[in-house]
């Protein structure tokens, strides 16, 4: 990358490079999406081109999309939340119960989303204030929240939901699914928060080092609680789309394992689970990929349980690819540097040829009868000095080359270690 | 010197209250008193034996999970490993009933070890984050369990008597599966307290960097811990199918969370480096009594998830507070010595 640094204004400008842009992780995801479409077209072309198929594929993947947005923030901090599916069911239950009780529709929906936020607040306080590990807290609260739903609902199914839940999940506007439009709008909002606002930059910083950000005056605890509350609110919003996709029904055993799918999408989208790495549009594309992937495998008659294998492999490979990529790049660099070490040989060869020509000249001198002895010795001495200087030059050149190579190797090792 | 004298002068009461799992034992006793008055049927011999039998699988999984938690990692794939191994051993047992049942124990140990080895390789060598790696393998193993079983169930009449005896038979009135769990507890206690690799597990859990500097091969020890966890999960799979004489691909779903919960209840630190086998034993007993107790109370069986979740949160919170308190006390003692 070319960095134009001006010491006066301290501006660092990254030039746009097409070759770099095309091998970005997010671009690889786009290729994957295109590839999936091509596979679909090749295998089921008549179905693919009938109107409504593509939009229904997208609609089927949109129910967990809002949780993906919340999860990006959580993973950005280096934490994890596996209670989101339970929160989603809980807030869906609150909506359903309030609708049953005859409360105004908008109030009920608002209460449902706020219930999700409250659940997130509980998680956030336990993680940030009591300093419990996020994994344990959310495992326990996922049991707790789903347990509450089980206590309240038992084996009953809630069916009295507003009609627009289903229309929101299954309608198209100008051929584009309404749920995708909603998702895009919210995603843009989240993108602005993450990439352009102070809050978002603080998230990156906390993810990279909590201690440093604490000592530089960031309210780590407060931001953590905020992020968990946002996650809870987004789970509440996702409940609307989930119930809509299910056709307006909710029971206590629904949406089990959604949290794992959401985490898988985020990881596929290039969010590091260590925190502090990733862009928002990666998971956005990954959500679409997941929808297409599940549909394609369904088309190819791979059953739901075998799909789990693919989800698992994708999860592991997506995490490993950057590592392998880095390793491969380092390997290639080393090989190129070995090619440079051939240059050491080349330097040596050049030096040898020089020395040999000079030696030949010495021999000629000695055979020359026209010159006097003194002249001969002077000339030979001159040649010998030249030979020695050539040898010295060669040694210096090879030394500097070797040093360069070692420095490069150290650099690559450090990169690998990172 | 003063410290030594203090330690010698401790009387019996102080020794008892100083015991790490003291809080847990008190909790256990309170629970038992409640249980004695509310559900007296719990204290009949048959009830206790069935409780032991049904919770031994949790105990075996929890020991494996403890190895992993001590290294500072987590293993979410144990339940899937259990499912896959159980499917493989019981399916092949039903198609070759003439083979002695001991072979299937060995097979389950080998398959479990391979599953654990894959986890260990991903985490120890490729430096993946344990949560993500085992999340991925959790999906993969569960998928393979389905592929291998073909979605079929295996019913009790297909199980050979020798196979079932490994779990359901009894010696001195206690079921075999419980004996196996007890043996594993003893072996794990010896392994962790006496042997070199056992101490190294604690070392890398406490501080991976400094143990690396001290010459411990951190990656290899991690592989060992995950392999042990996988091996025990494999054994648990064989015993699970033998215990219930039933087998299907989705069995033991969510057991990994139970195993983690038991470990945490038993005082194993999720950050690594802290935790003992005796704590896990008490954790197992407590968790099984809670589950049994709730199951016996009328109309409370739907409360089980919520109560267990709440108990985990409270247990971890108490764990953290007592940890802070002990650090404070240690600091006070040090400052008073100066």
What does the model show?
The complex is a heterodimer of chains A (418) and B (338). Chain A has 418 residues and is mainly alpha-helical. Chain A is 76% helix and 3% strand. Chain A has 2 domains: 51-302, ABC transporter involved in vitamin B12 uptake, BtuC, CATH 1.10.3470; 327-417. Chain A is built from 17 helices and 4 strands. A two-stranded antiparallel sheet of chain A has the order 1-2. Chain A has a two-stranded antiparallel sheet with strand order 3-4. In chain A, a hairpin with a 2-residue loop joins strand 3 and strand 4 (176-177). The longest helix of chain A has 64 residues, at 304-367. Chain A is elongated and about 125 Å long. Chain A starts with a strand and ends with a helix. The model of chain A is unreliable at 1-8 (pLDDT under 50). Chain B is mainly alpha-helical. Chain B has one domain (47-270, 277-292). Chain B is built from 15 helices and 2 strands. In chain B, helix 5 runs antiparallel to helix 6 (101-125), helix 5 packs across helix 12 (218-244) and helix 10 crosses helix 12 (218-244). Chain B is globular. Chain B starts with a helix and ends with a helix. Chain A binds chain B through residues 80, 126, 130-133, 135-137, 139-148, 150-151, 154, 260, 263-264, 267, 273-274, 303, 305-313, 315-316, 319-320, 323, and chain B through 74, 122, 126-129, 131-133, 135-140, 142-144, 146-147, 151, 249, 257, 260-261, 264, 270-271, 302-310, 312-313, 316-317, 320.
Overall mean confidence score, pLDDT of chain A:
81
- Give the biggest beta sheet of chain A: 2 strands, antiparallel
Helix-strand category of chain A: mainly alpha
Strand order in space, largest sheet of chain A: 1-2
Strand order of the largest sheet of chain B: 1-2
Question: What is the strand and helix layout of this fold?
Answer:
The complex is a heterodimer of chains A (418) and B (338).
Chain A: E1 3-6, E2 11-14, H1 18-22, H2 25-43, H3 45-48, H4 53-60, H5 65-76, H6 84-100, H7 105-128, H8 134-153, H9 164-170, E3 172-173, E4 176-177, H10 178-196, H11 198-208, H12 210-215, H13 220-245, H14 258-268, H15 281-299, H16 304-367, H17 373-417
Antiparallel strand pairs in A: 1-2, 3-4
Helix pairs in contact in A: 2-15, 4-15, 5-10, 5-13, 5-14, 6-7, 6-8, 6-13, 7-8, 7-13, 9-13, 10-11, 14-15, 14-16, 16-17
Chain B: H1 2-9, H2 12-18, H3 22-38, H4 45-70, H5 78-95, H6 101-125, H7 130-149, H8 161-168, E1 170-171, E2 174-175, H9 176-193, H10 196-206, H11 208-213, H12 218-244, H13 255-265, H14 277-296, H15 304-337
Antiparallel strand pairs in B: 1-2
Helix pairs in contact in B: 3-14, 4-9, 4-12, 4-13, 4-14, 5-6, 5-7, 5-12, 6-7, 6-12, 8-12, 10-12, 13-14
């Amino acid at each position: 990358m070319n960095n134009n640094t001006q010491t006066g204004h301290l501006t660092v400008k990254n030039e746009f490079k097409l070759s770099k842009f095309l091998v970005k992780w997010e671009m690889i995801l786009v290729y994957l999406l295109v590839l999936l479409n091509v596979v679909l077209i090749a295998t089921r072309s008549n179905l693919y081109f009938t109107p409504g198929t593509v939009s229904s594929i997208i609609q089927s993947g949109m129910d967990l999309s809002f949780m993906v947005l919340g999860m990006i923030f959580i993973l950005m901090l280096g934490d994890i939340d596996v209670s989101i599916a339970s929160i989603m069911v809980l807030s869906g239950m609150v909506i359903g119960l309030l609708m049953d009780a005859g409360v105004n529709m908008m109030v009920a929906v608002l209460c449902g989303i706020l219930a999700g936020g409250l659940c997130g607040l509980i998680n956030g306080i336990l993680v940030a204030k009591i300093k419990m590990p996020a994994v344990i807290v959310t495992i326990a609260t996922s049991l707790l929240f789903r347990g509450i739903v089980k206590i309240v609902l038992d084996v009953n199914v809630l069916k009295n939901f507003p009609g627009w839940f289903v229309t929101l999940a299954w309608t198209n506007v100008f051929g584009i699914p309404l749920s995708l439009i909603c998702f895009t709008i919210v995603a843009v909002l989240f993108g602005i928060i993450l990439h352009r606002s102070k809050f978002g930059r603080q998230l990156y910083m906390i993810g990279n080092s909590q201690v440093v950000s604490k000592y530089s005056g960031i309210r780590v605890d407060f931001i953590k609680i905020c992020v968990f509350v946002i996650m809870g609110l987004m789970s509440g919003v996702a409940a609307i789309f989930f119930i809509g996709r299910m056709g307006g029904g909710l029971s206590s055993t629904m949406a089990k394992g959604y949290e794992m799918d959401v985490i898988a999408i985020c990881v596929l989208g290039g969010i590091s689970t260590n925190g502090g790495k990733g862009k928002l549009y990666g998971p956005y594309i990954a959500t679409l990929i997941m929808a297409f992937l599940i549909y394609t495998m369904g088309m190819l008659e791979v059953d739901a349980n075998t799909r789990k294998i693919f989800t698992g492999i994708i999860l592991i490979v997506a995490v490993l690819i950057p590592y392998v990529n880095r390793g491969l790049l380092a390997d290639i660099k080393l090989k190129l540097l070995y090619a440079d070490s051939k240059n050491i040989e080349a330097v040596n060869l050049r030096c040898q040829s020089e020395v040999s020509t000079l030696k030949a000249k010495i021999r000629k001198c000695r055979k020359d009868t026209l010159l006097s002895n003194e002249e001969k010795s002077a000339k030979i001495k001159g040649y010998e000095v030249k030979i020695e200087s050539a040898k010295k030059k060669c040694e210096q050149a090879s030394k500097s080359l070797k040093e360069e190579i070692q420095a490069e190797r150290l650099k690559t090792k450090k990169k690998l270690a990172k | 010197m003063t410290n030594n004298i203090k330690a010698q002068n401790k009387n019996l009461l102080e020794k008892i209250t100083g015991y790490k799992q003291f809080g847990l034992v008190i909790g256990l006793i309170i629970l038992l008193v409640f249980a004695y008055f509310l559900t007296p049927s719990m204290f009949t011999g048959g009830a206790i034996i069935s409780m032991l039998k049904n919770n031994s699988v949790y105990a075996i999984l929890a020991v494996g999970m403890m190895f992993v938690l001590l290294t500072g990692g987590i293993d979410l794939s144990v339940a899937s490993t259990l499912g896959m191994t159980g499917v493989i051993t019981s399916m092949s047992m039903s198609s070759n009933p003439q083979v002695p049942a001991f072979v299937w124990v060995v097979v389950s140990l080998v398959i479990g070890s391979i599953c654990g080895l894959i986890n260990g390789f991903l985490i120890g060598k490729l430096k993946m984050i344990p949560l993500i790696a085992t999340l991925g393998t959790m999906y993969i193993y569960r998928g393979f369990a389905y592929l291998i079983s073909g979605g079929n169930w295996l019913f009790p009449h297909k199980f050979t008597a020798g196979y079932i005896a490994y779990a359901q038979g009894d010696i001195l009135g206690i079921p075999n599966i419980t004996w196996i769990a007890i043996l594993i507890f003893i072996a794990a206690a010896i392994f962790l307290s006496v042997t070199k690799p056992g101490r190294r597990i604690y070392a890398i859990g406490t501080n991976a960097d400094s143990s690396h500097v001290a010459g411990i091969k951190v990656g290899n020890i991690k592989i060992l811990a995950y392999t042990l966890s996988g091996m025990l999960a494999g054994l648990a799979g064989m015993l699970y199918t033998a215990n219930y004489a039933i087998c299907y691909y989705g069995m033991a779903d969510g057991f990994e969370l139970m195993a983690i919960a038991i470990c945490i209840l038993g005082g194993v630190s999720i950050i690594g480096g802290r935790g003992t086998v005796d704590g896990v034993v008490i954790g197992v007993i407590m968790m099984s009594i809670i589950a049994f107790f709730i199951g016996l109370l009328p109309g409370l069986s739907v409360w089980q998830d919520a109560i267990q979740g709440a108990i985990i949160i409270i247990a971890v919170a108490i764990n953290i507070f007592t940890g802070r308190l002990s650090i404070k006390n240690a600091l006070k003692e040090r400052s008073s010595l100066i």
